[in-house]
């Protein structure tokens, strides 16, 4: 009644999942870095634009335009993180399905 247990398949699956996890973390760090650089560049450029404001109307228009651009940028960054999370989830589920076979 002795059975040889094959640990190779589960071990390979764990290694694949850990590799995917490391890759996803690396991509997440790169996205965070890119987002930070974009925000820094945005604010530096807005500071330069703000120096040229003369009237209260200019200030209001500048504020509305700057906030619109900022929120658009943040939306795009959020979508990039969502895409990364969705892809990582799909990859992990595919790996789990392979393990179940």
How does this structure look, described?
The protein is an all-alpha fold and 101 residues long. It has one domain (26-100). The chain is 87% helix and 0% strand. It has helices at residues 8-50, 56-100. The longest helix has 45 residues, at 56-100. The protein starts with 7 loop residues before the first helix and ends with a helix. The relative contact order is 0.12. The model has no long low-confidence stretch (mean pLDDT 90).
Please summarize what this structure is.
By secondary structure, this protein is mainly alpha-helical. 87% of the residues lie in helices and 0% in strands. It has one domain (26-100).
Indicate the low-confidence ranges by residue numbers.
Answer: none
Rg, rounded, reads: 24 Å
Structural class: mainly alpha
What is the straight-line distance between the termini? 24 Å
Question: What fraction, in percent, of the residue positions are helical?
Answer: over 70%
Describe the biggest sheet?
none
Structural domains: how many: 1
> Which percent band covers the strand fraction?
under 5%
**Residue-averaged pLDDT, rounded?**
90
**Helix and strand pattern:** HH
> Shape from CA axes?
rod-shaped
The count of β-strands is 0
The number of helices is 2
